[in-house]
Amino acid sequence: MSDPTQPSTDYLDYLDKETQVRARHIRHEDSPFAGAPEALADALLARVDALAPELADLAAQLHQDPETAYQEHRSARRVADLLERHGIAAEVGVHGLDTAVRAQAGSGSPVLAVMGEYDALPGIGHACGHNVIAAAGAGAFLALAETLRDDPDAFPGTVVFLGTPAEEGYSGKEVMIQHGALDGVDAAMMVHPLGADVVDQVWLGRRVLTVKFSGVAAHASAQPFMGRNALDAATLAYQGVGLLRQQMPPSDRIHAIITEGGERPSIIPEFAEMKFYARSKYPETLRELSGRIEDIVRGAALMTGTGVEIEWDAEPPSLPVRSSRALTGRWLSAQRRRGRDPLPAGVVSETLAASTDFGNVSYRVPGIHPLIAISAPDVALHTREFAAAAGSPEAARGAADGAAGLALTALDYFWDPELQRAAAQEFADAGGPVDVAGYFD
Hints:
Blueprint lengths: L9 H16 L12 H27 L8 H13 L5 E4 L2 E11 L3 E6 L13 H21 L6 E7 L8 H7 L8 E3 L2 E3 L10 E10 L15 H15 L8 E8 L10 E10 L2 H22 L2 E6 L12 H13 L20 H5 L4 E2 L2 E3 L10 H6 L3 H23 L1 H13 L6 H4 L2
Parallel strand pairs: 3-4, 3-5, 5-11, 6-12
Antiparallel strand pairs: 1-2, 2-4, 7-9, 7-10, 8-9
Helix pairs in contact: 2-3, 2-4, 2-11, 4-11, 6-7, 8-11
């Protein structure tokens, strides 16, 4: 009885079988947009291939020296150093964050931002593969910037690189946005590693809630009736959330822990603290879920006679990702040129869903957040196994192929006014920009 039972893999095995079936029957629609001239696209890919050893080296250095959210000083410097070695001025410490990076090339409109993350997870390092994201984003930007340096008329517009810290557990992109990172930007993109190539996957919005219950301490044996038990309030709230799950849509998620709940069994706890993550597929359903959780917390305080303090989003919330189908179509074409054939949206189960602060970007401007395989399909994000994959040769290949995909998609966007208009119209039809900072007020 000293060891836990091991979870069954049966459900994941069935998900894998269902994914394979859907992959055989769900087909991509070919992109209606022509893209950039073939010769220019070929030359851009050659630049990415020439950069590939440096991208692999950057990904490896970040992997070997992981830094967590808001502490990515060496990581940001490494990214900036790569850009500067190629003659690109890179600024570190921008848009409200000491570890954010910005560089740009070209001039005029349209303006497209390529993003790169480089923060790691506490304890298990780059178990989300952000080292690959940084290398892919920097590589795409460099290939585009060098194309413009050799021929300023190669394509119209401005390409911006944004190194975005603190995605894990925080929302560094939202902080940067509030400090002007997307001012004047028309579209944005980044790529994320996974165990499969996927054009577009569900990413849930996420909010963070901290709850503090205050009670009255008392001797738990002699005078328990003189106490007000803050731990009772926390456990009631925890159980209430558990009961709520039966009435939640299948795409909603709640995770909760009790971080403080007393010091000695003989004392009625006068203080308890809880932390919650609330996730949902749509902004509206995330707002509704937030209200249900808050009702449960207040009810637990009422039942126990305790006081309660509720604090939502000490760090900015993250919205779901809203992808541009017009742009993902060009990503698909680009990846096929690299010998990959990403799965369409809807093939990988929606139950395999996490969150990212790129969602906040995608509700400000048209954007894409595709996935690129660096591991076996059964290796999950945020595990030691995925951390190992992020330091593998497949990760180096993923960084190069990701850079190629981002660079070619960006080139198509710059070259094709119809693609630009389609992305903008699709974004407007989906509801246009959302003020994330005030959405949940």
